[in-house]
Write a structure and sequence with these properties.
This protein is an alpha+beta fold. The protein has a single domain, classed as Nucleotidyltransferase, domain 5. The protein has 3 helices and 4 strands, in the order H-E-E-E-H-E-H. The protein has helices spanning about 5-15, 65-85, 100-110, and strands at about 30-35, 40-45, 50-55, 90-95. The protein has a 4-stranded mixed sheet with strand order 3-2-1-4. A hairpin with a 4-residue loop joins strand 1 (about 30-35) and strand 2. Helix 2 (about 65-85) runs parallel beside helix 3. The protein is globular. About 30% of the residues are buried.
């Protein structure tokens, strides 16, 4: 029986998370992409705490932009907040999505603003 799109992503996500773990020194940058919005958070898996989060939801700076541009802005905002919180390097968790389009734009925006992957 063929897997649905959601089941395929869940399978890929499990495969990725088996190898990626966010520490206190190098937390995990996790991305969630819905049809309309994009969300990102930096997580310390040792403590189980979200350190910094950013999204395009109810964000005035992303209005009137296409989704890839919105993702880049969210990435920059997240990186700026992370640098203020003392985080300079992260492990990127694409959460089962292809590293393409909005996910890539978010990562590039975060790198541009000073985060190291």
């Amino acid at each position: 029986m063929a897997l649905s799109k959601v089941e395929k992503r869940a399978k890929i996500k499990r495969r990725i998370r088996k190898n990626i773990f966010g520490t206190t020194e190098q937390p995990r940058l996790s991305v969630f992409r819905s049809n309309k919005e994009i969300y990102a958070q930096i997580i310390d898996d040792v403590k189980g705490v979200t350190l910094v989060a950013s999204s395009s939801y109810k964000n005035k700076s992303v209005e009137g932009k296409n989704k890839s541009e919105q993702a880049a802005i969210v990435g920059k905002e997240l990186a700026e907040k992370a640098v203020k919180a003392g985080v300079s390097a992260v492990v990127f968790d694409r959460n089962g999505y292809q590293y393409h389009g909005r996910v890539k734009s978010l990562a590039d925006g975060a790198r541009e603003a000073g985060l190291k992957f």
